[in-house]
Amino acid sequence: MTDTLSSYLASIRKKDPDQPEFQQAAEEVLTSLWPFLQDNPAYLSQGILERLLEPERSITFRVPWTDDQGKVHVNRGYRVQMNSAIGPYKGGLRFHPSVNLGVLKFLAFEQVFKNALTTLPMGGGKGGSDFDPKGKSDSEVMRFCQSFMTELSRHIGANLDIPAGDIGVGAREVGYMYGQYKRMRNEFTSVLTGKGQTYGGSLMRPEATGFGCVYFAEQMLKSRDKSLDGLRVVISGAGNVAQYAALKVIQLGGLVLSLSDSGGTLHFADGLDEATWKKVVKLKNQERGRLEALDGQPGVQFIANSTPWHLSCDLALPCATQNELDEDDARKLIDNGCIAVAEGANMPCTLAAADLFLEHKTLYAPGKAANAGGVAVSGLEMSQNAMRLSWTEEEVDQKLHEIMESIHNACSHYGKDEEGFINYVKGANIAGFVKVADAMLAQGIV
Ligand code: NDP
Fold first, then answer.
1. Three-state SS for 210?
2. In sequence order, which residues have a C-beta less than 8 Å from that of residue 90 and are 6 or more positions away?
3. How far apart, in Å, do the first and last CA atoms of the chain sit?
4. Binding site membership of 165 for ligand 1 (Cβ less than 6 Å)
5. Distance 237 CA to ligand 1 centre (A)
6. Does residue 228 contact residue 252 with C-beta atoms inside 8 Å?
7. pLDDT digits over 202-214, tens only?
8. Are 166 and 114 in contact (CB under 8 A)?
9. Coil, strand or helix: which one is 108?
10. Ligand 1 near 320 CB (within 6 A)
């Protein structure tokens, strides 16, 4: 690689032409870091960028499992161990048909910066499979998880690599995988986070990503002397992150106008109330149903095949998946008066959408800052396991608050311009980068 930005980007495209999500994440980070790197050329030495862009290790493996009819299926399993400069690899597992090496590399790359921002000693990794838990029985999911963990267990450990949940991997899947790991290793260690509370899980871990995202949005609004009280909020997704983001917005006096899933958008014209929120949670977590089933409930309308971005709002929280909000969506949000966007999901906004928000001075927080609350409380789960104690809900919530505030401060420190506008993309990327790069420089060429 030579040392111009365009040559770095061209080299990434050439090296991994079939990994568009990884290219996108790398382009976002390198572009926003570039002026800082020019001013601090030590960070362009010792192959820091090249090493950050190359996983320390990528593991691909076969996952055979048998369905309820006795038919054998084979899925592909992965673990990308991206960077361990500041701590053991840490990052979730995703089970979704769209999973491939490029998607997991983008997620693992983002995770390195996010974990550094939490102030906790965690490196970055990500894994998963193209297995789709939707429509599978509990026994099928269990057999898949056991087969997946049988191979993954060789590559992880409480001081080596600690996975957690992500899309398609919730409490059920973490439980099955943890059970299999424990059985194979014959030891009770903190090898997965997001565990159930009866076997080492932390209070507030299920809530952490969604709550943390809203705490971050509160800080963003505060920088403009605003609060969530009375604000209209659109949220996409209806999974773990979206559910708890919605609950916290309601608790803080905001009006939740939408949730969504891959079938469409559920619109709450007068705002989502806690009783309807409970119905959504039961539908998605217990019955594993589709949002469409709630169409026609009082104040609830389902809009098929639609995302929520056309709805007029003050704050948008994309909490479903990558690239779910494009430039046209961003324009609609801006035109309809949206003043802030905080990403609960990883990379939900396309590069063009993100650029448009920044151009219009919309408050815009990338996932690596706004959704870091989940991995932060996973880090707290590891600490509690190591100390063999459990903190109360209030203690964990207090720590989550402090961590989200400190991430906001780090973003402001590196991202605020002369006019006081905070570029959270720049701030988060520089703050995360400096911590990891300093550790890499100290540890030599490894
Ligand atoms: P869940 O599996 O609990 O929920 C995912 C939600 O997103 C579902 O409502 C799902 O709808 C929807 N969705 C998934 N893929 C698509 C798609 N292609 N188009 C439209 N909707 C889609 O996952 P999480 O809530 O855990 O994760 C959501 C996002 O947050 C991801 O980007 C994840 O990486 C990120 N994240 C999660 C953390 C966590 O602690 N869980 C931590 C930090 C980030 P459907 O059911 O129809 O598929």
1. helix
2. 111, 115, 122, 123, 124, 125, 161, 162, 163, 164, 375, 378, 379
3. 18
4. yes
5. 6
6. yes
7. 999 999 999 999 9
8. no
9. helix
10. yes
- The answer to whether the beta carbons of residues 264 and 291 sit under 8 Å apart is yes
Q: Count other C-beta atoms under 10 Å from residue 417's C-beta.
A: 10
Residue 158 is which amino acid? A
What span, in angstroms and rounded, lies between the C-alpha atoms of 316 and 217? 10
Measure 419 CA to ligand 1 centroid, in angstroms: 36
Per the listing, tokens 């290793």 go with 185
Residues 6+ apart with CB under 8 A from 183: none
Q: List Cβ neighbours of 128 (8 Å cut-off, separation of 6 or more).
A: 77, 78, 92, 93, 94, 95, 96, 99, 104, 166, 168, 169
Closest CA relative to residue 255, chosen from 239, 238, 274? 274
d(CA 339, CA 231): 10
pLDDT for the residue 76 = 98
Q: From the CB of 261, is ligand 1 less than 6 Å away? A: yes
**From 96, 241, 368, mutation site for ligand 1 pocket: most ligand atoms within 8 A of C-beta:** 241
pLDDT averaged over the chain? 97
Q: Is 217 helix (H, G, I), strand (E, B) or coil?
A: helix
What backbone phi and psi angles, to 5 degrees, belong to 196?
-65, 155
Per residue in 36-51, pLDDT (tens digit) is 999 999 999 999 999 9
